[in-house]
Design brief:
It holds the Pfam family FAD-oxidase_C. By secondary structure, this protein is α+β, with helices and mostly antiparallel strands. 35% of the residues lie in helices and 19% in strands. The protein has 5 domains: 90 residues, Uridine Diphospho-n-acetylenolpyruvylglucosamine Reductase, domain 2, CATH 3.30.43; 119 residues, Uridine Diphospho-n-acetylenolpyruvylglucosamine Reductase, domain 3; 115 residues, Alpha-Beta Plaits; 78 residues, Alpha-Beta Plaits (2-Layer Sandwich), CATH 3.30.70.2740; 43 residues.
């Protein structure tokens, strides 16, 4: 039986109790101080918070969770606040507390023989990458927001990114976890084992739960050897089908070398080169579409450049690609990646945009792009489809920019029409409406039709068992109980 909450404390009494546990640096209540925590990165959601709590240890976090449970205070976990679906934004009631783990930011250790890193949730992904590299290893997880995204949020959303094709997403890189559960108890699963069949894999349940089942506080992540050679190349192609042919050619020659394979539409590339300073196309002519590929090897005798030139030469001869450029330095490699990583910012500068983070089996990516482009152009004449993303693992960000001259508010008012149009095609192609960004508070309405029946019922049972009063990140992932199964 679940214990009933204690009588609600007055706001100032509750804040005083939080301050006793966390100290003055751990509690933010001034409206100016908490404002950045109450708006999501895309400015789609604007909430209010009772306070922002910043624990410095697992014990402190557990204590404030128990206090929140005792007084029926909803909790919203937040890392670097880079969610694309409003997953870390409080509602507008002012009852919720935002709990940010940025003060829990220690890299506890790196084991060079075990190839593991033990790291706290508040460390940014970039800091974790740098620490691994300085120790002679590589943390392969790489996303556009890695400079601000924190490990806790990266794991809670099961982030994917550019290197998923080769190394897997966050779930595949996580060996062990420590977490504070919704009742304030501490799950200590910081085990470095590759094999551990002792009941349910709770760490896998927490990874990807978007903060609805507990707070990830510490993780043990797998590292990989540093590559000795890296080649990046930008290739011009006629369409997504040709891009898929190039992927097949690379895999047939040596799949172990392929690290990233990113698709970009001609429209998206044009926005980047027009609107982002310093982003220039290093090819003689523009193309209908592009592929940014990256090959890497830890072997000292691989002669990677010879392989890259050989396979791209073959692709040119067969008409799979129409042009290509290989980076000759680290700065040129960074320049090629800038063309890919600035797509979201370029689209923001071009006006309002609707983002569809979807995935389909890799073989269906060309059909997805062709059909969704036609459907959206029919839905809103003048709309600018700008799909891009991780073609190598089937994850395309099918983003759409407002027609030139259309009011941003009018375009965004059609967001659900656009999302539903794209999602209907994705569903027919056996895909997913959320590939790596999560469900958050943007997409729970889609869950019954996509994950209904036994699957959604099981999710609800798990949520109720661990968080019976729905205090952990309420309103995220699962739709209201009255909607769907």
């Amino acid at each position: 039986m679940t214990a009933s909450p204690s009588p609600a404390l007055a706001r100032h009494d509750l804040i005083a109790r939080f301050s006793e546990i966390l100290g003055p640096a751990g509690v933010l209540t001034d409206a100016t101080d908490i404002a950045p925590f109450c708006t999501d990165w895309r400015s789609l959601y604007h909430g209010r918070a009772l306070a922002v709590l910043r624990p410095a240890s697992t014990d402190e976090l557990a204590a404030i969770v128990r206090l929140c449970v005792a007084h029926d205070v909803p909790m919203v976990p937040q890392g670097g606040n880079t969610s694309m679906v409003g997953g870390a934004t409080p509602d507008d009631t002012g009852r919720e507390v935002v709990i940010c783990l940025s003060r829990m930011n220690r890299i506890r250790g790196i084991d060079p023989r075990d190839l593991t890193m033990e790291i706290e949730a508040g460390v940014t992904l970039k800091a974790a990458q740098d620490a691994a590299w300085e120790a002679g290893f590589m943390l392969p997880l790489s996303i556009s927001s890695e400079g601000s995204a924190q490990i806790g949020g990266v794991l809670a959303t099961n982030a994917g990114g550019n290197n998923t094709l080769r190394y897997g997403n966050a779930r595949e890189l996580t060996l062990g976890l420590e977490a504070v559960m919704p009742d304030g108890s501490v799950f200590n699963g910081l085990r470095r084992l590759r094999k551990d069949n002792t009941g349910y894999a709770l760490r896998q349940l927490l990874v990807g739960s978007e903060g609805t089942l507990g707070f990830i506080t510490t993780a043990i992540l797998q590292l990989h050897p540093q590559p000795r050679e890296i080649d990046a190349a930008l290739c011009a192609v006629e369409d997504a089908s040709a891009a898929l042919d190039l992927l097949g050619l690379l895999r047939s020659r040596d799949p172990s070398l392929l690290q990233a394979f990113e698709f970009m539409s001609g429209t998206g590339m044009e926005l980047v080169t027009d609107l982002i300073p310093g982003a220039g196309l290093p090819l003689e002519e523009t193309a209908p579409a592009y592929v940014l590929l990256e090959l890497a090897t830890p072997r000292p005798d691989a002669d990677l450049r010879e392989f890259t030139e050989s396979v791209l030469g073959e692709a040119l001869e067969e008409g799979i690609i129409t042009d290509a450029v290989i980076a000759e330095s680290e700065s040129q490699r960074a320049g090629l990646w800038k063309l890919r990583e600035e797509h979201a910012e370029a689209q923001r500068r071009a006006g309002a945009s609707v983002k569809n983070d979807v995935s389909v089996p890799v073989t269906h990516v060309p059909e997805l792009i062709t059909r969704a482009t036609s459907a959206c152009e029919a839905l809103i004449p003048g709309i600018r489809p700008a799909p891009f993303g991780h073609m190598g693992d089937g994850n395309i960000h099918f983003n759409l920019v407002q027609p030139e001259g259309m009011a941003p508010e009018a375009f965004l008012a059609r967001s659900h029409d656009i999302m539903d149009t794209v999602s209907a095609i994705v569903k027919e192609l056996d895909g997913s409406f959320s590939a790596e960004h999560g469900v958050g508070q943007l997409k729970p309405y889609m869950m019954p039709s996509w994950r209904g029946g036994a699957e959604l019922a099981a999710m609800r049972h798990i949520k109720t068992a661990l968080d019976p009063r729905n205090l952990m990140n309420p309103g995220k992932v699962l739709p209201p109980a009255t909607q769907g199964a």
